[in-house]
Amino acid sequence: MTTTETRFREEVRSWLADALPADWGRGRAPSASLAGRIAEGKAWQRAVHRAGFGGLGLPVEFGGRPASATERLLFAEECAAARAPEPADIFGQLILAPTLMQLGTAEQKARFLPPVIAGDMMWCETFSEPDNGSDMANIQCRADVEGDELVVTGRKRWNSLAQFATWTMLLCRTGAPDSRGRGITFALVDLSSPGIRIEPMPMLTGDARENEVFFDRVRVPLENVLGEVDDGWRVAMAAMTTQRAIGTAELVPRLAVVVEDLVALAGRTGVGGRPAIEDPLVRDGIARCAVDVAALRRNGQQAMAASALGRPPGPEVSIAKLHWSESEQRMHRLAVEMLGLRGLLVRDDETAVDDGYWAHYWLWTHALTIHSGTSEIQRNIIAERVLGLPRNR
Ligand SMILES: Cc1cc2nc3c(=O)[nH]c(=O)nc-3n(C[C@H](O)[C@H](O)[C@H](O)COP(=O)(O)OP(=O)(O)OC[C@H]3O[C@@H](n4cnc5c(N)ncnc54)[C@H](O)[C@@H]3O)c2cc1C
User: Fold this and answer.
1) 357 lines ligand 1 (CB under 6 A)
2) pLDDT tens string 341-361
3) Which protein residue has the closest C-alpha to ligand 1 atom 40?
4) Residue-by-residue DSSP string for 279-318
5) 65 alpha carbon, distance to own chain's centre
6) Do 252 and 296 contact (CB within 8 A), yes or no?
């Protein structure tokens, strides 16, 4: 680490010590409601921006701050170690902003980057549809150019946090119905536009985090198209690659903290009066989790070093996505198994350990191996585009 990076780490650490109460985030209880967690995440984003850590690595003219890839990773590691809240606008700050920097026009950057960096917008992603998930080129949601607008009609599904969002990144079909990736457009849509209806979908955890979003002749100015009309596949691939790379930068540091908590949990719980930490299977399981985190961290550092040399992330981000999502699932399953029957109790049950955190998040981790491309799809990408094996069909 360079002297500048060491100084940056100290600056972040000392700000976090002031910004968060000393016992912040201990005990792992999930905050009351999804709406409560989103409100907390929004307030945190604004605090990060006010402290001068918003938009790390993005241009100063848009409210960002120059930062190396290592400094961005250091910021994420320090926030994870302090158990800081997760930012609410993951889609805007971590997916849209880098995609705009790569493919947006000067006007689009000037219009959207400042409010995204300041935490004044909340974005979602409306790509998937009832009959289209893994096969993203099969978009059916129709959009026709009328004058200087797109007119959009269709139905989207599984759209995370859409009920809290103000804008969405939309994929729609502008070409012939069978034009696959050649006839898709990527548009930025104001969710307060007439003709949009959002219906939350309750999930296994009890939270309704995902939604269905209906578009009925929604008018979108052509200036909101990212890339060109019919050129959205290229933009979507850039956004998806960024999305899969996020885990490396943002989630892996948080997994290191989960391993610490697993060790603590194994020390204070057990079956039949014997602490779980004395069980060889538990010890073996925790060691495996620690090895996963070490490997993920090392690969993340390599990816950061490559990006510092100007190499954009490629299909190898699928390796990271597959590894972190399956590792996080394994970690939470280990905790639930360690707790025996009490591991099945969810929040609001007074005998639940850590207010049901482990059961709640173990259920949630099942979503990790589906969203942003399922594990099977990541394995196909690794086989075909990283290893050069023959196509599966
Ligand atoms: C919690 C959650 C959040 C999500 N958030 C969003 C969001 O914000 N925005 C959004 O647009 N979408 C979102 N999604 C949708 C997500 O991207 C899709 O669910 C995912 O791509 C899978 O698509 P599908 O559900 O249609 O399953 P399908 O594509 O029908 O797949 C069904 C099964 O078949 C397997 N399969 C499919 N094709 C192949 C193949 N070629 N080779 C091998 N196996 C294959 C899959 O791996 C899966 O096991 C979210 C999903 C979840 C669960």
Assistant:
1) no
2) 888 888 778 888 888 889 999
3) 377
4) -HHHHHHHHHHHHHHHHHHHHHHHHHHHHHTT----TTHH
5) 22
6) yes
- 373 C-alpha to center of ligand 1: Å? 6
Q: What's the CATH fold of domain 123-230? A: Butyryl-CoA Dehydrogenase, subunit A; domain 2 (2.40.110)
Task: Report domain extents, the chain.
Answer: 3-118, 123-230, 235-386
Q: Do residues 160 and 195 lie in contact, with contact meaning Cβ atoms separated by under 8 Å?
A: no
Homologous superfamily, domain 3-118: Acyl-CoA dehydrogenase/oxidase, N-terminal domain (1.10.540.10)
Ligand 1 atom having least distance to the Cα of 126: 11
The answer to whether domain 123-230 and domain 235-386 are alike in fold is no
Q: Which residue in this structure is represented by tokens 């080129």?
A: 137
Q: Which atom of ligand 1 is nearest to the CA of 125?
A: 9
**Distance from residue 132's CA to the centre of ligand 1 (Å):** 8
Nearest to 97 by CA among 132, 71, 75, 72: 72
Q: Is the CB of 128 under 6 A from ligand 1?
A: yes
Q: Distance, CA 174 to ligand 1 centroid (Å)? A: 23
Helices 69-81 and 252-268: crossing angle in degrees, nearest 10, is 20
Of ligand 1's listed atoms, the one at least distance from the Cα of 372 is: 17
Per CATH, the number for 235-386 is 1.20.140.10
Residue nearest to atom 18 of ligand 1 (CA): 133
The residue whose CA is least distant from atom 48 of ligand 1 is 374
Note the pLDDT tens digit of each residue in 4-55. Answer: 999 999 999 999 999 987 666 655 455 568 898 899 999 999 999 999 999 9
